[in-house]
Structure formats: C-alpha cells, structure tokens
Design brief:
One of its GO terms (molecular function) is transcription coactivator activity. Pfam families: zf-TAZ. The protein is mostly helical and 172 residues long. The protein is 49% helix and 5% strand. Helix 1 crosses helix 4. The longest helix is centred in the N-terminal third of the chain and has 20 residues.
Length: 172
C-alpha cells in the first residue's frame, strides 16, 4: 500500500478498534492519553528498528498524511484522526519547538482565538454598563417636550387634536 493510499476507506471502527458501541468515557480518555503519548514518542523517535509496533503504525499514518491528496480536497478519515489527535496534544503542549505535526500551527490558532476573546467585551464589562444605565436618574435625562407638542425655533407649538373616527378635511 503506497503512502498516499487511504486506510480510512476500510470499514470505520471506533477508537477501541471494534465495530461495537463506543467505549465508556473513562476508557476513552485513557485511550486518548495513550494515543497522545504514542504521538509524542513517534514524533521524536528516529530509531528505524523501534520495538514499538504502535510507533511503526503511527509513523506510517504520518507518512500517509504528508502525501495525502484527499486531505485538502475532500475529507480523509485517517488525516482527520491524526489532526484531531494533534489538536488534543497541542492544547496542553508548552514546548517551543515541538515535533508533533501541526502542533505549533494549532497552538498559534488557539492563542489567536484567546486574544480575540480578550478583545471582546467581557460579560463583567457588559454587566457594569447595564448597572450604570440602571443608576441613571430622571435628572440625568434631558427634558423632552410633552406629547402633542412640537418644539420649533425655541418655541413650543401645540398640535391640533385629531379624532381618528372623523374623516380628514384637509386636502393633500
């Protein structure tokens, strides 16, 4: 199988490798943690004879990802899984020069999103503004003309009463 062929075209299975129902949450969390640890190992490992079978398999997935043409055009299940695993890793990674694929790019995106959230007004700021509006008294509001009156050139003009039940006598 060449590096660009798609392992994901086979029957898709859950994270535990079976076609049964998904694993319970605690098992799934442990599986993801172990997968992240293997991703970190595989990213650092330079031993072609590494005794870990998982290291070999994951290195094949990384080779596939580098040569995959479907990754950009369509969705490749294998590439999606790798990128998802890299996202989980990147959320907790603090290394300046991490070798895990996509880690630095994902961390940069996460930082940009965090900065964008800081630029938006916080809920606390919005609540403070609302509290300030609630503190405004009648003395703070400029006077308005009474209903039925219009202010023209510093003079208040009384508007005629209009009875909606009577037909209009004025012609337009």
């Amino acid at each position: 199988m060449s590096s660009a062929e798609h392992y994901g075209d086979q029957a898709r299975t859950n994270s535990m490798g079976s076609n049964s129902t998904p694993a319970p949450t605690s098992q799934r969390v442990e599986y993801v943690k172990a997968s992240i640890a293997m991703l970190e190992h595989t990213s650092r490992c330079r031993d072609p004879a590494c005794p870990s079978d998982s290291c070999y398999k994951l290195s094949r997935v990384m080779v596939h990802n580098r040569g995959c043409r479907r990754r950009r055009i369509e969705s490749c299940f294998v590439c999606q899984q790798l990128v998802t695993l890299c996202r989980f890793h990147a959320k907790d990674c603090h290394k300046e020069r991490c070798r895990v694929p996509y880690c630095q790019r994902i961390r940069r995106k996460l930082q940009e999103r965090a900065m964008a959230l800081l630029d938006e007004p916080s809920l606390l700021e919005v609540m403070d503004a609302a509290r300030h509006l609630a503190d405004i008294t009648i003395d703070d509001v400029p006077p308005q003309t009474p209903l039925g009156q219009v202010e023209e050139d510093d003079e208040i003009v009384e508007l005629p009463d209009i009875d909606p039940s009577q037909p209009s006598t004025s012609s337009l």
